Amino acid sequence: MGIRSTNSLPKGFSQNNQLPIRLVAPNFGHLSPESVINYGHTHRLSYYFFLFVLDGVTRHGVDLEKIEVGKHELLFSLPHQIQQLPISAHGNDYYKLGFDEECLSQLPRYYPFLLNPLNQQKIRFSSAAASRMQAIFEILLGLLTAPNTSPDLILAHLNSLLTEINTAYFAGDTKPADDRLTKYIGFKVFVENNLTDHPSIKDIAQELALSTDSLYQIVKQYSGHSPKEFVTNRLILEARRRMYYGDRSSVKELAFELGFNDPDYFSRLFKKVTGKTVAEFSQDLS
């Protein structure tokens, strides 16, 4: 399997003795300059990250793409994504939140938006919803000022926060309970868990109890790509992530790591998807 199943906050990041969670606001929770230097401007996430902007504008990098985040907007990044921190400040008023899989596992429900089925890293909130978000963040900030705060209190408000985000994520779209979206989420989970095994579209359809035609229609509806294109794009994204953050393996080694038996085929596929050869992409990173 090419994707790790557990994640963790970097050592010393947590603000609670029992939960892996950290909250940052303009006047709260900032790391020391030394820690920021050690952590790095660009890194591969091992936890869930949220940036909620109340006022101002910032630009944040996710998987080598720059995303502008403005007033009443939230950016979220998931474990294994490449994060590029902005050099400038996060607007005038903001909250940043990070927690890992261990923390998420203690919450009482499942939040479909965390699989990003609609492929949108940014969420816009109404004024009323933004006010509720701010209120929850402020409560969490108060709870995290003391490292011995009861985890139950923190988890209760984290659940409220993620419920607000999940509702806003799917606003105006098919409800998460819709069977087609449920199947699409199942497709994404299966791809993540079996990425380097290169599952066939027929095998994925059988796993989800769908015909290949139904799977095609569902994946096309939510991603804009065919199932085969989706899997291919995900593999190439993983290649780009590994090249960007980690040892610069040879083309042959990288191909084998990602489950390709033919490095030449991998190279052709990389060029087709990115428009650049592996060597050209590596040179751009230098």
Automatic annotation (TrEMBL):
Residues covered by the HTH araC/xylS-type domain: 185-284
InterPro entries listed in its UniProt record: Homeodomain-like_sf (IPR009057), HTH-like (IPR037923), HTH_AraC (IPR018060)
Cross-referenced Pfam families: HTH_18
Top-level taxon in the UniProt lineage: Bacteria
Keywords: DNA-binding, Transcription, Transcription regulation
Signal peptide stretch: none
PROSITE patterns xrefs: HTH_ARAC_FAMILY_2
Protein name in UniProt: AraC family transcriptional regulator
